[in-house]
């Protein structure tokens, strides 16, 4: 993951005390939060996104930054993931939180399959959260991802077995 936003876009948050980030608990896991805790997390996320989103830092960049800080809570809502969710890029922090809530529901509905993937990765020494695995699956399955062109190659490998 890399950021393409210029360094000056981060001047307002670099080397500063960020109480809105401290309010987003490191213990929150999007796939584990029950409704009352999700409401608290959603409010903290909306505040954090409101502090982050500005010119040069939209929802995609802001969720990427928050994902790096809270990888078990915040998916990276880039254009490919948002499109795979059947949504439009959120234009406000509140709409971004609604979409994160949708990711939470998708994770709940697909938990068994996601846990199998996580177990497989763990056996290889790779630790990934439910949110990160789901995010990667959504991104990687989009026709515009850099992984998509590999699908025919993988299909040929499987057929050759």
Q: What class would the helix/strand composition place it in? A: mainly alpha
* Radius of gyration (Å): 17 Å
CA-based shape: globular
SSE string, helices as H and strands as E = HHHHHHHH
How many domains make up the coordinates?
1
Low-confidence sequence ranges: none
Whole-number mean pLDDT: 90
Characterize the main sheet: none
Query: Per DSSP, what share of the residues sits in E-state strands of 2 or more residues?
Result: under 5%
Helix content: 55-70%
Number of strands: 0
Distance between the termini: 33 Å
In short:
The chain is mainly alpha-helical and 161 residues long. The protein has helices at residues 19-22, 35-52, 59-69, 79-84, 93-109, 111-123, 130-140, 151-160.
């Amino acid at each position: 993951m890399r950021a393409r936003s210029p360094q000056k876009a981060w001047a307002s948050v670099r080397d500063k005390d960020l109480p809105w980030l401290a309010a987003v608990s490191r213990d929150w896991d999007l796939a584990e939060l029950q409704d009352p805790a999700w409401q608290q997390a959603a409010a903290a996320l909306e505040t954090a996104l409101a502090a982050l989103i500005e010119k040069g830092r939209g929802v995609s960049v802001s969720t990427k930054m928050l994902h790096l800080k809270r990888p078990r809570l915040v998916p990276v809502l880039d254009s490919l993931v948002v499109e795979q969710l059947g949504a439009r890029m959120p234009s406000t922090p509140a709409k971004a939180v609604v979409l994160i809530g949708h990711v939470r529901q998708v994770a709940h509905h697909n938990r068994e399959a996601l846990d199998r993937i996580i177990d497989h990765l763990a056996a290889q020494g790779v630790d990934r959260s439910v949110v990160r695995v789901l995010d990667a699956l959504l991104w990687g399955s989009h026709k515009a991802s850099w992984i998509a062109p590999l699908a025919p190659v993988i299909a040929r490998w499987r057929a050759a077995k």
